[in-house]
Amino acid sequence: IGYNYRMSNLLAALGRAQLSRLDAMIERRRARRLRYRELFSGVPGVTMFGEPSGADGQGCARDNFWLTSVLVDAGTAGFTAEDLRLALAGADIEARPLWKPMHLQPVFAGARTYVDGTSERLFRSGLSLPSGSSLSEDDEDRVFGTIRTFLEGR
Question: Which residue among 55, 59, 101, 112 is buried most deeply as judged by most CB within 10 Å?
């Protein structure tokens, strides 16, 4: 069960070279999250993960903005995370549900679990939006335009 994600020397060298760009990449992702936050700010039933400054109030920890996700309360929003994902997919834009809980993975089907429903709720209501630091301005505008059109149609 599992995978070997050991890093080769070549990949380590590439990663080390990219560290010089890390701050700029994080800033692009942070700016994109703030733009998403603004887009969804007036939408009842939609909340975002992450505090916009990146501070989480836990000492020196800081958000790396690796993933920008929303939670959709379908009863309040009038649509589901899956509805939004399908609208994006219809425009050839990939968005993904939050991670499938480990106890729902086929390999762990018979394993003992200790759950309270939280992971299932997050999986069902969460959607990770396009947020990579290499997303072009044109692509970003297309994503936001598609979401805006979807929200206006609700």
Answer: 101
5 C-beta neighbours (distance < 10 Å), count: 5
pLDDT single digits (tens) 105-136: 999 988 999 999 999 999 999 999 999 888 99
3-state secondary structure labels for all residues of the chain: CCCCCCCCHHHHHHHHHHHHHHHHHHHHHHHHHHHHHHHHCCCCCEEECCCCCCECCCCCCECCCCCEEEEECHHHHCCCHHHHHHHHHHCCCCCEECCCCHHHCHHHCCCCCCCCCHHHHHHHHEEEECCCCCCCHHHHHHHHHHHHHHHHCC
Type of residue found at 72: V
Among 64, 62, 44, 49, residue whose Cα is nearest residue 129: 49
* Backbone phi and psi for residue 70, each to the nearest 5 degrees, phi listed first: -120, 155
